[in-house]
Design goal:
The chain is mainly α. The protein has one domain. It is built from ten helices and no strands. Helix 4 packs parallel to helix 6, helix 5 runs parallel beside helix 9 and helix 8 packs antiparallel against helix 9. The longest helix is centred in the first third of the chain and has 25 residues. The N and C termini lie far apart (56 Å).
Length: 200
């Protein structure tokens, strides 16, 4: 049965990834995460600012806002280029959310959700790899940087479509750029570890 272009067009008018989950969760727990620690709305800063359960909710929410649009795209439209475009839109929406004056997070969890949506088994494997690096090093940023470097090679070696590979290159470069200060802090020994309390 042919897919309906009108339905798919309506589905992609919304800004994927733009809902600031970390900010909303933090406010629900009485904290404005933008005013604590790094000021980031991602899972790591929510953990430092508000605790474990808010961080878990943020991680799940940020992953879902990457996963759901991509899954909808794969169901509604056959174009692999559009699937990749929706994935990138989710990442961009998280980094520059319209609801917070374009000041968002670094898109690690959202990017994980999009990868799972594009290639479920591979995406879950990369998510597990991210967790392994974080648990061993205690640095979420090192896990993010590592998985962004590895992802394009993983997508190529497992024979994923070209649009998906290009998405991992472009999206990964964006996430790496968002982590440039973290990379500098890691090199200089200033990076905060998982769970380390934020000041402010």
């Amino acid at each position: 049965m042919p897919r309906h272009d009108g339905d798919s067009a309506r589905a992609f008018r919304l800004p994927p990834g733009a809902v600031p989950v970390g900010y909303l969760v933090g406010r629900a727990f009485g904290v404005d995460v933008r005013r604590v620690g790094s000021g980031n709305i991602g899972t790591a800063n929510v953990l430092r600012a508000a605790g474990k359960w808010p961080a878990i909710l943020t991680l799940a929410g940020d992953m879902l806002k990457g996963l759901v649009p991509v899954v909808l795209a794969t169901v509604l439209v056959e174009s692999e280029w559009l699937h990749a475009a929706v994935a990138l839109a989710a990442v961009v929406g998280h980094c520059w959310p319209v609801f917070l004056r374009f000041k968002g997070g670094k898109a690690v969890a959202t990017g994980a959700g999009t990868s799972i949506g594009l290639a479920p088994l591979l995406g879950l494997g990369l998510f597990a790899f991210w967790w392994a690096v974080v648990l061993l090093s205690r640095y979420t940023s090192l896990g993010a940087i590592s998985v962004m470097v590895v992802s394009p090679f993983a997508f190529v070696l497992t024979g994923q479509p070209l649009p998906y590979v290009l998405y991992t290159v472009v999206g990964g470069a964006l996430v790496l750029w968002r982590h440039r200060e973290n990379a500098r802090a890691l090199i200089e020994g200033r990076e905060r570890k998982v769970g380390q309390k934020a000041e402010g």
